[in-house]
Amino acid sequence: xxxxxxxxxxxxxxxxxxxxxxxxxxxxWTTLSSAPVAEGIQISIGxxxxxxxxxxxxxxxxxxxxxxxxxxxxxxxxxxFKSYDYLKQVDSLSPVSTADGLNFFIPSYYDISDEEVxxxxxxxxxxxxxxxFEKDNELLFANxxxxxxxxxxxxxxxxxVVSPGTDYTLRVSKGDDNxxxxxxxxxxxxxxxxxxxxxxxDGSFAATSRIGFLANTNYVTDGSxxxxxxxxxxxxRFKRLAGAYQEKxxxxxxxxxxxxxxxxxxxxxxxxxxxxxxKTTPVGLNGNTVSLVDVSDxxxxxxxxxxxxxxxxxxxxxxxxxxxLAGKNIKTxxxxxxxxxxxxxxxQFAPYVxxxxxxxxxxxxxxxxxxxxxxxxxxLTSLETAGATEDRYxxxxxxxVPQRIRMYVWIEGQDADCxxxxxxxxxxxxxELAGSNKDSYEEATK
Length: 446
Hints:
single chain; alpha+beta; seven-stranded mixed β-sheet; five-stranded antiparallel β-sheet; 29 strands; about 30% strand; globular
């Protein structure tokens, strides 16, 4: 493939979420609760004037919310903008399911008022069938504040991308040693004889978490461009905007949408001992019917991410812990953990993460899963891997047209590993996007 990859770094984007399990049911889903913290969200971009990123700016005019880009540049840190402060106050993630980024399905459980329970056909707390799940196409279960105690919860945020040079496509990319894409759990710090050590995590969040990119490519015609043109961040190279999305409480916008799901730890399995990939079939709509949906046409799969082991002169996370605590009067494990992750590392985890390769062809991966829904270790190792999935992409960027993208973070309840009681900890999410030129776009989408 004639492909010119231009790096668009979204490195060090840390979404750190703490959760504790309070309820588990016998079927596929767990219910999670606690007070997560989503902080230090950063997106850094490489590529100079080739691919640029901007925060989303919203403004209400005559009762209507308009969106336009902030200042485009090659580095963007979300935490510097007040418009993203809500990410520091969101409630816990708890399992939901989506196939399209427009319709989220919230699990429903039997309670004592249900006829099935009264008749002895079901027990209190058992999961109902998917046709009885609650459909959320108004973002009602998104970005809930701490203490909301909802039965389902996911996160979303908007940002803008533009390519001033040529038409480009965007993909999720492995990246380089200073950034890259990964999702990994942060080990808890526990007290040990003579000091503090890292406690191994069970991988439950890493195995079940998903990142989704919803890209609507319709041109915006609601007056947002006029607001942008009159803003101090306006760039005269850009004559129109793309990307129309619903506001919270409104119905999903049914324009020209493309949804891409990033599965960051495809072969991290908690059930069974053998390394394998188990495909997920999320809940979605087939017309007006709720059903399980094949998402192979919108999925990019990365192999397992892990903390780097000691090799040559690289530094491990355990060594960083020792350095971060040296000379300090640390009195508790919690204080040691805060010192390591929040004070010393400040969300910069990428140098200590061994990032998995991407399966270069989702079609080839799903061909291996055709018989039983799984690809075993031998089948996995026979597949080609690369820095990005070549036959799946997020969006085609039209030259000089700023594109708004909506990104989701959720726990997929239909994942095979969303089953067991566990005490989950914090995790770090890093993203790097890669763009390719028009020729490689045409070739990849034939």
